[in-house]
Specification:
Number of helices: 4
Shape: elongated
Radius of gyration: 29 Å
Order of helices and strands: HHHEHEE
Largest sheet: 3 strands, mixed
Strand content: 5-15%
């Protein structure tokens, strides 16, 4: 019995340097694979938020037209739609003019008329409402 106790005391408890390096390498590989997916989550959330804002405003424009038999005026769209939106008029979370809730009036097709410093672009004759960024107009 004394002999087995002596053997146990002589054994080291813990991990060797090689074992620690292997574990750190494996964790590093996992982090390198997972990190890009986690960072894209924020971009996806901003894109989805803006798409949802567009859908909500488009629905509000259609409700306004159903009630008033015409589309809201571009100059007063943010106040005209107040009864159809919950809270403040939304601002886009992406694009060249992100964070700007102002609306650019467009007399032609918004796809041809994009540009400027406004966050949104709106055609009051057709009721078209889009993000004011040439690369995101297809939303």
């Amino acid at each position: 019995m004394r002999r087995s106790v002596a053997l146990l005391r002589g054994r080291r408890a813990g991990f060797s340097l090689v074992e620690m390096v292997v574990v750190i390498l494996v964790l590093g590989i996992i982090a390198a694979i997972a990190a890009p997916k986690m960072f894209n989550t924020a971009t996806d959330a901003r894109n989805n938020s803006t798409k949802q804002s567009i859908a909500v405003v488009r629905d509000a424009v259609e409700l306004y037209k159903a009630k008033n038999e015409s589309y809201p005026a571009a100059a007063s769209i943010t106040t005209d739609l107040k009864d159809f939106l919950r809270g403040n008029f939304p601002a886009p979370e992406v694009g060249a003019n992100k964070g700007d809730a102002t609306v650019k009036a467009s007399v032609k097709d918004p796809i041809d008329d994009a540009g400027g410093t406004n966050g949104w672009i709106y055609n009051e004759t057709s009721g078209e409402f889009r993000i004011n960024d040439a690369t995101l107009l297809t939303w």
